[in-house]
Write a structure and sequence with these properties.
This protein is α+β, with helices and mostly antiparallel strands and 81 residues long. The protein contains one helix and four strands; from the N terminus they run ββββα.
Length: 81
């Protein structure tokens, strides 16, 4: 597994596997919470990559984009008119 990256409450971990000579697949684990309240989302990604570094970079970027999209969701307004 490639190096993990802590971003706020999330831990992004690229998961890279070799599929044969010059063929690498990418997945990403996005974990949050602690102990029995841990939630781990794992996504397998496309395409197949020609080297390990490109696969790891793609997985990390995908994880960061997911966190950004999750944080960008509008919060409900609690103010009364």
């Amino acid at each position: 597994m490639a190096s993990s990256l802590q971003v706020g409450k999330y831990l992004i971990s690229p998961i890279i596997r070799t599929l044969g000579p010059d063929r690498w697949s990418a997945a990403v684990s996005i974990r949050s919470g602690r102990g029995s309240m841990t939630h781990d989302r794992v996504m397998r990604l496309q395409p197949v990559f020609g080297n390990r570094d490109d696969a790891a970079r793609h997985a990390t970027e995908h994880g960061l984009a997911w966190i950004d999209a999750a944080g960008a969701a509008p919060m409900p307004s609690l103010a009364t008119p």
